[in-house]
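Milestone M4 deliverable, item 7.
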Amino acid sequence: MSTEATTLPALPKAAQTRNLILATWAFAISFWAWNLIGPLAARYATEMDLSSTQKSFAVAVPVIVGALGRIAAGTLTDKYGGRLMFTVLLVLSAPFVILVAVAGNADSYAMLVVFGFFLGIAGTTFAVGIPMVKAWYEKPRQGFATGLFGAGMGGTALSSFFTPRFVDWFGYTVTHVIIAVALLVTAALCWFLMRDSPRWSPSSQPATPKLVAALKEPVTWQMSLLYAIAFGGFVAFSTYLPTYLGDVLTYDYDLTAAGERTAGFAIAAVVARPIGGTLSDKLGPRLVTMISLAGTAVMAVVLALRPEPEWPAGISFVLMATFLGLGAGSVFAWVALRAPADKTGSVTGIVGAAGGLGGFFPPLVMGATYNEQDHTYTTGLLLLCLSAALVLLYTVFGLRERPGGRRKAT
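Output delivered:
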């Protein structure tokens, strides 16, 4: 997507608000679908007699498609626009929500993994919304706008909180039908009510050379590293926390109780993300990102010590979510400032993919390092601390701001 804020008149605020709300909701409902397996992982583990590693893989597998698919989704958004891409991706996701239910009813782990893989399509919408929202807003408000859009990742909170309850209230199959219908209704709303910004013009460059050009941009790799920690950490916790809270003896929550607490974690990150974007507009994204990484490293150690429920543990998880949310908002405020206008979709797709990949591997690591004798995940949390600390050092010493402006980094 490209913008020409300096030559075009200000856009109507009503149109900005309408499209931001629609994009945020589309992102939220698609993320609910993307995270359907995680809140029910304990159910699948019991009914299919899954090992810890198998359960972790089932939870993580939708993330890989949602991650890598963002590269294509972002590049195609530059060419076809957010309105069309949102509509198409929402429609494509709906059948796989139903097929996941078919797999669960058949007690087939192989089917669950295959259909969960394609369910990952729902996780690609992030790369559609960022360039679309950016094109609707002027630079001084792009951090706010992309941060508010990013709050749509609260779809994981909706999934964690409501999916187990929907299963109790309506039944397993009907729950999946409800989500599939919600995806299709949202697709219709996007098609009939959403509009691409007048400041956007379709990219005429072929997709492959455009993607290669985006890969040559230093900002792509720099922001990918940062986002792999911030958003990757959020995705990992959001998808794996119901399992974590059920496995660790200090907590030992059932499916519904674990879902409630996972929803609280996700809500804290959702609230923090637009705050991170807004603070980046005022203080610069580098400082906000540094605070996020430092906080994440510290809280990983705190969680490894297994604080007692309810208040010590609750506050610790909320603080972790807050730091991750701040970082997710600040990194994409940084992307909005530094990515070339005609490559925003491609850069967003690659950075978004890095964030998704950052969320794919931790559940696998957690499953592989789970201490069955002590029922702890200490090793995985300490690896998160180490990763965040190393990336913090890179941000401090490797991403220095240029003289005369706090918003640009080398």
